[in-house]
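My hope is that you will study the protein record below before we discuss the fold together.
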Amino acid sequence: MNHLPPFAYFAPRSIAEAVAMLTREGVGAYPLAGGTDLLVRGKRGHPFAKTVVNLKLIPELRGIEELPDGIRIGALEVIAALQRSALIARELPVLAEAAERLGSPSIRNMATLGGNIGRASPASDMAPALIVLDATLTVEGPTGRRTLPVESFFRGPGVTVLTPGEVITNFLVPKMPGRSAATYERLGRSQGTECALLGVASLIALAENRLEAKAARIALAAVAPVPMRSKRAEAALLSGPLTEDRLWDAARGAAADCMPITDIRATAAYRREMVEVMTLRGLRRAWEQAVGGRA
């Protein structure tokens, strides 16, 4: 059995205190949110943090609340809370859908939204949903506070735009407009417990005539170094009246845009083919829901 190496441990009570600790400790300091990734990696022999800064005692990092400009979600809210939130289900159902498909119940009860995004896994289930919803995140660090789109947060597998001492504090997700719908499709080898072979989030907002899309966003996971949008798919959806053929064009565009790899779980060719299948499936659901949904 592998044992964790010795490490320093701190439990700040405020964001400012956490930032100060992370800045002081420097390289090797790790902010602890849910811990589902850090502890597993340590027990498997991967490099472990020299210093762990536990964020769980900071109340400002929690909460799901409705604001005039959207829904604020604290970075330490666990995935299970998103799955069961009545507010999320009503205003951002695709986020609840993605949360339900992430991991097992035990993982969802520990893993946090901030941790899932901050880990910068290409296979993140939450990232595609946040991206199509045009969500932003706020970080605080030694130089102050800044807000940026979730879409621009990732730099590569496990790499983000965060600078030393910065922590994610919350997310702001705009409410979905009328005559719109979003869906999340996930493909995995086993139900829930394994990271996704691929994930596709799709959003369609209908024009006044309900025949065309006035906005469309497609985001993919596990088929590129970072969660990514498919601009070809979006352009296809916005190029004329929505039809089954146009959905097919968008699905083929998503397959053309993605950059999958071959690994022990699937080949690149299989992933690309399934991007087309899952994008088409998600778009059909989103179109149907938008036509019959909120006015």
